[in-house]
Design a protein that fits this description.
Layout lengths: L3 H6 L9 E3 L5 H5 L1 E3 L14 E3 L24 E3 L12 E7 L8 E6 L4 E5 L9 E2 L12 E3 L8 E3 L1 E2 L6 E3 L7 E7 L2 E5 L5 E5 L3 E4 L15 H6 L58 E3 L10
Length: 300
């Protein structure tokens, strides 16, 4: 990440919203904490930019449960977010900062000079009234979208494309920021939030700055009801079940790690810990320079 002085020169600011806590007068308020919503300036979404989210309850078209722990929850509407920013060279004004129930980050409502409105992921420090622009000639300022070949080395970025023209796919959650480390032979080396260093085509677009709402990681639900509001139903542990119900069930007394010879698995016997599910011959392996655990990638 670039030094603070360099980030300040580029207009990059990091805002940290406070988290509300409560006196432990009841069991539910003992640990509960809420995000401070002082950054939100508009509470109703744009009608043209939302669509109804149909809930499945974790069931497929036969009515059978295929995803456990899903059901209930408050009604939500999906916000249609512009991850491509194709209006190159056209200036947009930030009209509002909004809440999105389907993601951890905030949304910024942009209004272009031709009257069109779109949503983007709101970066940290973005204020209502700010002027944004996208394209190869855009200045490297917070919220502007540029190709990697036009972005100065060492500053935080987010909303990265993995393939040119596909739209942003990575670094989109609250507080996330990647770093442009270097460029060589048509590729840029990016350090992702996970620690992985990856080569990405320098024609891919990215947005300057860090994703806002960085204090989201400090929010504590504090009670079961807040999970139910999100549509998350409770699931009991496999080791607490009977052998007929789960591969980890049964045993005399409690067993923290599966009860002896057996390994922790899913209800259908797939190993849950230590079993690598990534395809060793995956074609995108050649773009990974350093893995998340810090070891260099061995590409054959």
């Amino acid at each position: 990440m670039a030094p603070l002085s360099k980030q300040a020169d580029l207009g990059i600011a990091f805002d940290f919203m406070p988290v509300k806590t409560f006196r432990p007068l009841t069991p539910s308020t003992r640990y509960i904490s809420f995000a401070d919503n002082s950054d939100i300036t508009k509470t109703t979404p744009e009608k043209r930019l939302v669509e109804i989210r149909k809930r499945s309850g974790g069931r497929n078209h036969y009515g059978r449960v295929t995803a456990r722990g899903i059901g209930g929850g408050h009604k939500q509407k999906i916000r249609i977010v512009d991850f491509k920013r194709l209006k190159h060279g056209m200036e947009a004004t930030v009209a509002a900062i909004e809440y999105d129930p389907g993601r951890t980050a905030r949304l910024a409502l942009l209004q272009y000079t031709d009257g069109e409105k779109t949503y983007i992921i709101a970066p940290s420090g973005l204020q209502v009234g700010a002027k944004l622009v996208s394209g190869p000639s855009a200045p490297a300022e917070v919220g502007n979208c540029l190709p990697l070949k036009s972005i100065p080395v060492g500053i935080p970025i987010h909303n990265l494309e993995l393939f040119p023209g596909r739209g942003a796919q990575v670094v989109r959650s609250a507080g996330g920021a990647a770093t442009l480390m270097s460029r060589d032979e048509g590729y840029a080396q990016i350090r992702l939030p996970s620690g992985e260093i990856r080569k990405i085509n320098e024609n891919c677009y990215a947005t300057i700055g860090q994703v806002g709402n960085a204090e989201h990681e400090n929010v504590v639900l504090g009670k079961a009801g807040r999970s139910r509001h999100r549509g998350i139903r409770p699931i009991n542990r496999g080791v607490a079940r009977n052998p007929v119900d789960h591969p980890n069930g049964g045993g005399a007394g409690k067993s923290k790690s599966g009860g002896g010879w057996q390994q922790l698995t899913s209800p259908w016997g797939l190993i849950a810990k230590g079993y690598r599910t990534r395809n060793k011959k995956k074609s995108s392996n050649r773009f990974i320079v350093v893995r998340r655990d810090g070891r260099p990638m061995k590409n054959k």
